[in-house]
Fold these 2 entries.
Entry 1:
Amino acid sequence: MLKVKRLFSLTAILVTAIFVNFVAEAANAQSGTNVAVIDIPMVFKGHALFKRQMEDFKVEVEAAEKTIGAERDRITKMIQELSSQYKPGSPDYKVKEEEVARQQSELQVKMTLQKKDFMEKEARIYFNVYDQVKRTVAAFAERNNIALVLRYNSTEIEADNRQSVLEGINRPVIYQNRIDITQDVLALLNAGVPATARPQNGLIPR
């Protein structure tokens, strides 16, 4: 009878220990930080609005380059005419030479200002899209109780490419298991869903 009581006592202790351990683990899980990762370069690559804006920007740059090229060709033709039609040192030669120099200077200034303008436009495109991505990620994380979202790179490291290997070594995220929200965020962005809207089916962390 004593052995039976001891057996029941031991069983009760084990059950209690298991229950306490289970409760402790559950509490730790609830108090833990939910973490997700996102591949920002992939987001930009798959962002429909960003790609369209960059395509329009490329067309604008190419048109400007074509115009600059035409002006450069015209000035080159003026230089050729200067050497073939005017006598060096003559009054007409000096007038034409000054005109060529003036137009060359104006073209250089135009190119410099245009390059600055294009760089600013490109920066604004990247900034606006990144700001939209950040707001969408923040709203998505809040709706899904995600406390921390880290950047990571899903691109495979090329073993025979030194630059790729060095970049891979310096990646902040070494391993992730089903906490990648890249496609979820892209779906929101490309569907035109406002950052404050609730996610549709399938737009929760996998």
Entry 2:
Amino acid sequence: MSNNPAFHQIENFIPSPYPGEMIASDLYNPSYRMAYRAVNVNTVPTTPASATIIGSGSKRFAQAYDANIATPGHMGSGLIKLHDYSYIGPCALPYDKYHQWALVGEPIFWGPDFAKWYCETHCATGTFNAEKHYRFASEFISQNRVRSVAGEHVILSAPGQDIYGHWLIDFIPKLYTLTQSETKLDSIYLEHIPKWAHIFLQAFELAPNKLKSHPAKVFSVESAIIPSSSKSGYRLGAQNIKNAWQHLNSQILPQPVPAGLSGEKIYLSRAQFSGSTRRSIVNATEVAQHFADRGYKVVAPERLSVAQQFQLMREARVVVGEDGSALHNIIFSNSGAKLGVLSLPERTNLWHAGICHILGHTVAFMDLPENETEDLSIPALASFLDELEG
């Protein structure tokens, strides 16, 4: 075996006669032992993005989002089948032992940026280089015995399996695709299932006894089925993702929210949240009081169950909070809701724009101070909210 297995994107293996958008075309590539079967229509959004992103402080986000959605990319809604591949680590990085390369790419949730970070983080020696080779796969395989698994199995393990926002954007749509395909679901590999994710599995009638942990740190599968991603970069599929969220919303029963928290205007506070290393608002108490004075309900989402968070969003018309996964719950608000994102100036998180674009919401962004010790200006916040609410 080579000491430097290559890094290849699955998009490069799609034969040229097929359209750039994997929307309704099946394909088979025997050279790389992979196939794709389309399940649902999943076109790009057709409404103008200019109607989605509002506010005088949102210019850099609007420009970045316009550039992103104009970029071609493979955005399927179907099943990818890989024959006799190995899978490495808790996120099940696909590895072709015959060609000695690891398979990455947006359709299998291994975007190049994440793959670079993942391999640099987990590689004991050397530096990841997408242009040449990396040592991560060879190190992992050399240190662990490969366990072979016969038959056909579904692999759901992927990057982000322990992050709430990735479940909403990535895992819920692929669960929907999987159930829509009517694939036999006797054996599903999912290495990490957070406690809060069980409600999602129940919504798609996936019994716990069908879900299995990986049989080894490196394992090969005779025939593996991977539901494809329904997005490309920050572009979200206009049909499949929206339909998946609507299905989820219809399956989760309302759960009462503690008294005094429900309302049309919600501020999601991260003041007590310890699950992130990102800096937060310095004068959090003063900011929360300003929201309360404007009629917002100040909510710490981590203190609510998932079902309670959904119920909170169903009643909300304006939602504001610091950039984070909790804001993705805007997917459960009725069309026309308004989302305000308090963003770090060094971050350009466009997921909020993508979500609002396909659901008919509007979103506005406000940068926190460059200086991490500086208070958020209350007059500036007031102006931002005036624009958002207006």
